[in-house]
Each structure stands twice: as structure tokens, then as C-alpha cells.
UniProtKB/TrEMBL annotation:
It comes from Intestinibacter bartlettii. InterPro entries: Diol/glycerol_deHydtase_lsu (IPR003206). The lineage of its organism: Bacteria, Bacillati, Bacillota, Clostridia, Peptostreptococcales. It comes from the Bacteria. This is Propanediol/glycerol family dehydratase large subunit. Residues 1-552 form the Diol/glycerol dehydratase large subunit domain.
Length: 553
């Protein structure tokens, strides 16, 4: 006979997840792998001749790049001589400020920084992350996609997402040739919801760069780096080529961050027997060496790999912390769905939500997950109320705000009409009043009429062939009667000339003023310091729509 309790437990959602025992030889170990190198460094005439137990003559291309570009050599011998446990305690000590310690953390080698964070439990990592986050105020980023690549729906969803509090928004495509329309739709919709939102379209790198240079996007992040040489070579890339691409974006005034995450090397079959966290630390040092302001990490699309091994979710938090220790903006994933368990997905997100990161999610789905073209998110549009109530319960700022239904309907309708007017002025495919009406009230693409995909793709190609740029978009919006939206897109374009939002962890407020680690640095130094949820923001978080007042009874 079977235990009926065990029969019940076997059918719980969490037991549909995949779990594996550690297998260090192939990299299936989250942290503290037995094959990880021992921290070391040797300098001769200012040149690194030994890095983490490896002589320069034996360096692979990542070792060369990290040794020559990724480490603050001024303090490296000092910090390498310090006890790792002592350094770990400095991370959680409120009497040691971020400014005090960041000069040391950026001077560590990859093996050293991995050893330091491995001394911490998850609570201690969260305490350290509270202090080490680059920007004072935490924020959030979302995905705005749909399975039909419907630009009217994208514009409406982007407007709602902006109203709900997302400071950055990202789209992608099902059909590559739809990219220009999707990029325009998310940019225009977002500016309707709240001026100053940064948007991007994640596609093949050359196309993504072209869209940015034409003024259709404001930032990029799907520029992936990896922790072993064979994975780089598999993608026909090197740290130098990634650095060149990063400079191409920056030279055109486009904010950008790299993407990495624990588990990618295991997934590609090239982990070289090292732990996931150690290899991820190498990715972060490559990012630092390229001069890139930030990173999207936290396993991201590889989350199923660390989530299947012991301490894997702890390792994900550890990689976010390492990013902050290297003085990088951290968009801390909470991205791709990885579990059947609601309890487990919330537990994974609290690691970043409670301490706050520069972007708690780098992909909260602003649509239902059936429309999420990034393989589904850990959070989607059906979780908005849960997220807002968790903020309220814990008095934390997760970047979102409660909204009124009438306000959402209003901005969705305006965004749909704006994209309708833009398409008409540019001579693109027709957007009907029926489509505008559907997008105004839609939950997802199941609520939207089908479009003529062939004609849309022809129109998108024609628009690109005509050399249409952001200036043409601004003029068309103005002619269509959306002067305020045109003004917002114009101000966003001016930011690319000024370049101020290229600074670490930069976002724009509704007045297009930059908030970054330069002018709004994290000043946490213990209780009642740093960012506090108070005043107008606390009133906003408290006043969820279904909270009753005494007069309601």
C-alpha cells in the first residue's frame, strides 16, 4: 500500500519541476565547485602574469581580457591578501559604506569574488545587495510582446505598462521583419503612458543596432557574454567583438547593458567542470572590462539549470550581488518562467524584490504569458495585483503602482489611436477603428482581430527602405494631432545627443531628468538611511483599489 500523503504530495505542482544531483565534472554545481580555481594574482611591471592559479602563457581569451581590462589593479594585491570571510563581513557591515568597499570589490579576481560571496547565506546576500545596488531607487522592467506581432496591441500594452510604473520596456518579434513596427509601437505606447520611458527591441544584433541608430529604440541589453572560451567561439564572438558592439551603441547615444547568467555554459555543454557562479563571475568581469555600464543577469533564460541543483537560487542571488560589487547596473532577471509552483516562483523573486535592485525584473511580462515571446515570464499581467499587494504587505518598492481601470482604458485608447495616426501619416498599412477599440479593452492577442501580415511586412520593409528615422516619426505624430507624444519622442531623441542617460543605472523621470548612480547614488548605511518608502510613494503603494475605508462600510 502507498502512503496517501505521499500520493498527494507527488501531485503538487512543485514536483513537476526538474531536479538533479550535483555533477561537478560537467558543471552541474551552483557554487563552490571542487574544480574552481584558487584565488591568486601576480603582477610584473603593472601586467598580470598570473590569474587565479594560471600563468599568462596559459591564459585563454577571457583570462587575457579580464587581466588586461577587467580588474582594478591599483588595489588588487591589497584585497587579494585579505581574508575572504573578513571581506564578506564588510559587505554586510552597515559601518562600511558602499563607497568604502567598492574599490576593493572591483579589485578582486573572479575566483576571489566568488569565494567572498560564497561565505554568505541568502539573508546576508540580501543585506549586502541593499547596500551595493548602484542607484538609490529600485526600479522595474517589463516585456511587451504578443504572438501575432500586433503593433496596435503592443502600443496599448506599453502605455498601460508605463502607467503601472515600469521605467524600461522591451519587445521582440515572432517574425523578424516585424521588428521596425514593434519597436515603433512600444516606443510610442510607452511615451503615452508616461513620458521618459526607455524602450528596446530585442532581435539579431545588426538589426537591433540599426533600429537604435534610426531612432526607433533607446537602449539594448540582449548582447550576451559567456564564461568560457568555447561558448564565445560557438557564437562567433570574443570579448573584444562584444566590446566593439557596445561602443557602437554608446557612440550613437544608446544606453546598453550586456546579458549573462548562471547555467548558460552548462546548457551549451562547455562548462569545463567549473561551478556556475565562478563562470558567471567571468562574464561580469568581461562586462566590466568592456566599459559597459550594466548587466542583465540572474540566470535569465537559463534559469532551469541552476534551479535544478542544490543552492541554485542562492547562486542566482549571488551573481546579482557580484554585479553590484563590480559597480554595474544590475537588471536582476526574475524573467523566464522556471517552475510549476507559485510558492517557488515568489520565493525566488523575493531575493531581489526585498533588497531592491536597479531593475528587479528584467522581464516582467506586461501581457498574459501566452503572449510572451521571451518563452514566458516568472511574472505576468495577471500578477499585477499580487505584486502590488506584496509591496504593500512588506512596505517595499518593487517599482509598480496600483492603477484605476478608467486610467488604463484611457491610455490604451490613446496609444492605439497614436499608432493609428502614425501609420496613416507614414502611408503604412491601415489600422481600423475596430482594431483601436479592441486594443483599448484587450487582455491579450486572443481579444484582437487578425491583421494582413503580408501587407504589414511589405510596409515595414518599405518604411526601412525609405530611410525613415525618428525625426520622421516625430513629424508624423505631430501632423496626426498627437503633439504631446511627438514632444516626448523628441525629448527622448535629444537624450541620445546629450548622452547623460548612458551613465550607470540611468533612468529618466517624467520630466526627462536623469536618475543614475552618478547623481542619485545608493547611500544605504543602515536603518533609516538610503532609499526609504515614504511620503507620496508610500501613499501610492498603500492605496490599492480593493482596500476599504471606514466610510465604505
Amino acid at each position: 500500500m502507498r502512503s496517501k500523503r505521499f500520493e498527494v504530495l507527488e501531485n503538487r505542482p512543485v514536483n513537476q519541476d526538474g531536479f538533479v544531483k550535483e555533477w561537478p565534472e560537467v558543471g552541474l554545481i551552483a557554487m563552490e565547485g571542487p574544480n574552481d580555481p584558487t584565488p591568486s594574482i601576480k603582477l610584473e611591471n603593472g601586467v598580470v602574469v598570473e590569474l587565479d592559479g594560471k600563468a599568462r602563457k596559459d591564459f585563454d581569451m577571457l583570462d587575457y581580457f579580464i587581466a588586461d581590462h577587467g580588474i582594478n589593479l591599483e588595489k588588487t594585491e591589497e584585497v587579494m591578501a585579505m581574508d575572504s570571510l573578513q571581506l564578506a563581513r564588510m559587505l554586510v557591515d552597515i559601518n562600511v559604506t558602499r563607497a568604502d568597499i567598492v574599490g576593493l570589490t572591483t579589485a578582486m579576481t573572479p575566483a576571489k569574488i566568488t569565494e567572498v560571496v560564497s561565505q554568505l547565506n541568502v539573508l546576508e546576500m540580501m543585506m549586502a545587495l541593499t547596500k551595493m545596488r548602484a542607484r538609490q531607487r529600485p526600479s522595474n522592467q517589463c516585456h511587451v510582446t504578443n504572438v501575432k506581432d500586433n503593433p496596435i496591441q503592443i502600443a496599448a500594452d506599453a502605455a498601460e505598462a508605463a502607467l503601472r510604473g515600469f521605467d524600461e520596456q522591451e519587445t521582440t518579434v515572432g517574425i523578424v521583419r516585424y521588428a521596425p513596427f514593434n519597436a515603433l509601437a512600444i516606443m510610442i505606447g510607452a511615451q503615452v503612458g508616461r513620458p521618459g520611458i526607455l524602450t528596446q527591441c530585442a532581435v539579431e544584433e545588426a538589426t537591433e543596432l540599426e533600429l537604435g541608430m534610426k531612432g526607433f529604440t533607446a537602449y539594448a541589453e540582449t548582447v550576451s557574454v559567456y564564461g568560457t572560451e568555447p561558448v564565445f567561439m560557438d557564437g562567433d564572438d570574443t570579448p573584444w567583438s562584444k566590446g566593439f558592439l557596445a561602443s557602437s551603441y554608446a557612440s550613437r547615444g544608446l544606453k546598453m547593458r550586456f546579458t549573462s547568467g548562471t547555467g548558460s555554459e552548462v546548457q551549451m555543454g562547455y562548462a569545463e567542470g567549473k561551478s556556475m557562479l565562478y563562470l558567471e563571475s567571468r562574464c561580469l568581469y568581461v562586462t566590466k572590462g568592456c566599459g559597459v555600464q550594466g548587466i542583465q543577469n540572474g540566470s535569465v533564460s537559463c534559469i532551469g539549470v541552476p534551479a535544478g541543483v542544490p543552492s541554485g537560487i542562492r547562486a542566482v542571488l549571488a551573481e546579482n550581488l557580484i554585479a553590484a560589487m563590480l559597480d554595474l547596473e544590475c537588471a536582476s532577471s526574475n524573467d523566464q518562467t522556471f517552475t510549476h509552483s507559485d510558492l517557488r516562483r515568489v520565493a525566488r523573486s523575493l531575493m531581489q524584490m526585498v533588497p531592491g535592485t536597479d531593475f528587479i525584473c528584467s522581464g516582467y511580462s506586461a501581457t498574459p504569458n501566452y503572449d510572451n515571446m521571451f518563452a514566458g515570464s516568472n511574472w505576468d499581467a495577471e500578477d499585477y495585483d499580487d505584486w502590488n499587494i506584496i509591496q504593500r504587505d512588506l512596505k517595499i518598492d518593487g517599482g509598480l503602482r496600483p492603477v484605476k481601470e478608467e486610467d488604463v482604458v484611457r491610455v490604451r485608447n490613446k496609444a492605439a489611436r497614436a499608432i493609428q495616426g502614425l501609420f496613416k501619416e507614414l502611408g503604412l498599412t491601415e489600422i481600423t477603428d475596430a482594431e483601436v477599440e479592441a486594443a483599448t479593452y484587450a487582455h491579450g492577442s486572443k481579444d484582437m482581430p487578425d491583421r494582413n501580415v503580408v501587407e504589414d511586412l511589405k510596409a515595414a520593409e518599405d518604411m526601412m527602405a525609405r530611410g525613415t528615422t525618428g525625426i520622421d516619426i516625430i513629424k508624423a505624430l505631430y501632423r496626426a494631432g498627437f503633439e504631446d507624444v511627438a514632444d516626448s519622442v523628441f525629448k527622448l531623441s535629444k537624450q541620445k545627443v546629450a548622452g547623460d542617460y548612458l551613465h550607470t543605472a540611468a533612468i529618466l523621470d517624467k520630466d526627462f531628468k536623469v536618475q543614475s548612480a552618478v547623481n542619485c547614488p545608493n547611500t544605504y548605511a543602515g536603518p533609516k538611511t538610503g532609499y526609504q518608502v515614504e511620503g507620496e510613494r508610500w501613499e501610492e503603494i498603500k492605496n490599492i483599489n480593493n482596500a476599504k475605508s471606514p466610510e465604505d462600510y
